[in-house]
Design a protein that fits this description.
Phytanoyl-CoA dioxygenase (PhyH), Phytyl_CoA_dOase-like, 8-stranded antiparallel beta sheet, 2-oxoglutarate-dependent dioxygenase activity, 4-stranded antiparallel beta sheet
Length: 260
């Protein structure tokens, strides 16, 4: 095995055994600047509201205020120009080693928030695009193999003041119920994740994670996607912006279901 292959396999092993991994500097500074400029421009066009709402408010067809922040759904419908740089070949290869070569892209989106958003409590992403249905039912199924991951590209440094991420290690097959109070930020055994802008965090769908409040000024932004195994159950909701999408080059096109 080459050094590059060793690195990819180490990330895949971390996903299987700990439920998360960080691919540092998966994207260039130029890509980060492009994505930040596009998202900040959209945010300004909507009047730059406080990027947090405890109750939720729909601002436009693909834009809402939510407890998560200023949320963009169907990202590529609003920013088709992001498609060529959205996916890192390194990240896709790591995910394919866990989910299988025939995994697909389920959803794209983005979130903006700032210091007004409080501690974002422990959560996971079971069900992917249908996650809110699972949360409403407090449904915690157990899986013998990974069926889905969330990949999140951060557009600024994540550190103790920049909205630190925390993750609770778990192996595939471990219980998916919350082991502690979801509002307590200090779960015993949790990991603190710090990394530079342009890095991608990959969480297995059952992995519990949380975000501390941002303590420094400015906006906290990320773009993300669900990637899903061919063996996962069909979802009720669909990101229809991916149906018939023609951009993104060969890598993104290889992850669209219609191209199978």
């Amino acid at each position: 095995m080459t050094e590059h292959d060793d690195e990819l396999e180490a990330h895949a092993r971390a996903l299987r055994e700990r439920g998360f991994t960080v691919v540092e500097r998966s994207h260039s500074r130029e890509t980060v600047a492009k994505f930040r400029a596009g998202l900040e421009g959209l945010y300004q066009r909507y009047g730059a509201p406080p990027p947090f709402s405890a109750k939720g408010e729909q601002l436009g067809p693909d834009v809402q205020l939510a407890p998560t922040g200023f949320v963009v759904t169907r990202l590529l419908a609003l920013f088709p120009e992001f498609a060529d740089e959205l996916l890192s070949p390194r990240v896709v290869e790591v995910v394919r080693r866990v989910l299988g070569r025939d995994m697909h892209l389920e959803l794209t989106g983005a979130v903006i928030c700032d210091a007004q958003r409080p501690f974002f409590s422990w959560h996971n992403h079971i069900g992917g695009i249908d996650v809110e249905d699972y949360r409403a039912r407090s449904s915690w199924p157990r899986f013998c193999e990974s069926q889905r991951v969330i990949v999140v590209l951060y557009l600024h440094d994540i550190d103790a003041r920049g909205g630190e991420l925390r993750a609770y290690p778990r192996a595939i097959g471990d219980p998916s119920e919350p082991p502690y109070d979801q509002m307590n930020p200090d779960w015993e055994g949790h990991a603190k994740l710090h990394f530079p802008a342009g890095s991608t965090v990959i969480f297995e769908q059952c992995t519990w994670h949380a975000a501390m409040a941002r303590e420094s000024p400015g906006l906290r932004m990320f773009v993300g996607a669900y990637m899903t195994s061919a063996r996962a159950a069909a979802t009720d909701a669909v990101d229809d912006s991916l149906v018939g999408f023609e951009g993104g080059g060969g890598l993104l096109q290889s992850l669209l279901l219609r191209n199978r």
